Amino acid sequence: MFSKGTINRIRRSVAIRLSVTFAVLFTVGFTALFVLLYWLLGKQLTQRDEEAINTRLEQYAYICNTQGWPGLKLALTLNTGLNTLLDRPLFIRVLTPNGDAPVLNVPKDWIDKEGKLVLVPDGWGGWAEQEVYSWRVPQDQQEDLIVLSKALRGGLLLQVGTITTNRTTLLKPLRRTFTGVTGAVVIVGFAVGWLAARRAVKPLQGVVDTARRIITTGALDARVDEPKRDNDIAELVRLFNTVLDKNASLLRSMREALDNVAHDLRTPLTSMRGSAELALASGAAPAMHDALADTVERSDEVLRLLRALMEISEADSGMLKLKREPCDVETILRAACDLYADVADARGQTLEVSLMAEPLAVSADPIRLRQVVVNLVDNALKYTPDGGRIVTGARSEMRGGRAGALITVSDDGPGVPEAEQRRIWERLYRCDQSRSQTGLGLGLSLVRAIVEAHGGVVSVRNVPPPGHGAIFEVWLPE
User: Fold this and answer.
1) Is the distance from CB of 185 to CB of 52 less than 8 angstroms?
2) CA–CA separation, 470 vs 379, rounded Å?
3) Which of 65, 96, 246, 324 is most buried, taking the most CB atoms under 10 A from its CB?
4) pTM score of the predicted model
5) How many other β-carbons are positioned within 10 Å of the β-carbon of residue 35?
6) Which stretches within 79-171 are classed as H helix?
7) DSSP, residue by residue, 144-166
8) For the purposes of burial, counting CB atoms within 10 Å of the CB of 15, is it exposed (0-12), middle (13-18) or buried (19 or more)?
9) Cα–Cα distance for residue pair 326/190, rounded to 1 Å
10) pLDDT tens-digit readout, 38-90
11) Cis status, amide bond into 286, omega within 30 of 0
12) What is the pLDDT of residues 361-405, one digit of tens each?
């Protein structure tokens, strides 16, 4: 059986959709052509028989108009070829104005085998015995009766008819052949459509594969092979490669500029920090000692700011290097809580890890994943009042047909206003209620950048009333 993911890929495949469409159109066209051919062939057969009978009807009508219907009967008796057509015997009769219907010729297979003797005028004033047979039309589901009529002089009506093979029966081998060929037509149509569609969408698949490779590995030098034919798809591939070239050039320029700025700032800051540490070690005056200590602290903050900015830029540009390996989520959570245990105890806060029903692991960079949890715990501690409670936990959760782990960090602080829940992930953004808190405003931005680099999703929501606080959620694919 196919998995759900395989079924979704088949359903979304443009090549398969085009193949099915081509096969359907090919089959519909073939069927329509057969129906038209079937109808034309049946019509031609019917028209052929009617034209042949009509020709013989005109001949009989001429004899009747010139010699009367007894003359026609005599002619039929003398020339037996007149009462047959296409090796089929003809039924011929004349309807008179007084209602009589003399039968001039009846096919032998229409006549009953047993006849009866009746007296008829002999034409000399006497009577003669004549054997009279009854007749009927031997028509069944495989035969059709064709009868044509023509008005004659004196109010007579001449009728000529014959039995022909039913068109449905006659064309039955053709229908049987069509039924057997239809399956082959569908298979051939799908195969031809598949080959044509694969050839048409192959460059598009190259675009998809290249984009996925860039997103997954950060290989900005990846490009799509241009098709040999010069068409719209080839133009799309060329434009896509041009966009990639421009983006790569822009990212290189930004990275070089950022590296230069970081280097230019880091060097004097490091030198200034070193000088301050030397002055502190030499035993400066108390006032100078405090000033130098503040200088060292501020220098560390600026260095952390530069380091965070560089990491966020690398993650956003897809150049953040990740060393993925199986990571036990509970171990990561407990390590983060142990790191901040003293800070929580100092404020009387409770920091705990909720019990997990079963071990849960994800493929991630353990250092970066620990960085994500540490930043979320640090953020929760800042906005949770003294004596508050912070709970971390994780559980399995399916999203978009993919299995993953949902890591949560909840607190009982004031929560995040709905109007600012999207903006807190921006660089250097700090909402109004956080103005009094220390920090660089980059912690949540770094969390978002690292999570998205892993192919995950990060979000925040408030605890529904009557409770209060915020719940930060990080979903990572397994």
Assistant:
1) no
2) 11
3) 65
4) 0.43
5) 11
6) 167-170
7) EEEEEEEE-GGG-EEEEEEEEE-
8) buried
9) 44
10) 788 878 877 887 888 888 888 888 888 888 777 877 777 777 666 676 667 78
11) no
12) 898 888 889 989 998 998 888 888 888 899 999 988 888 888 889
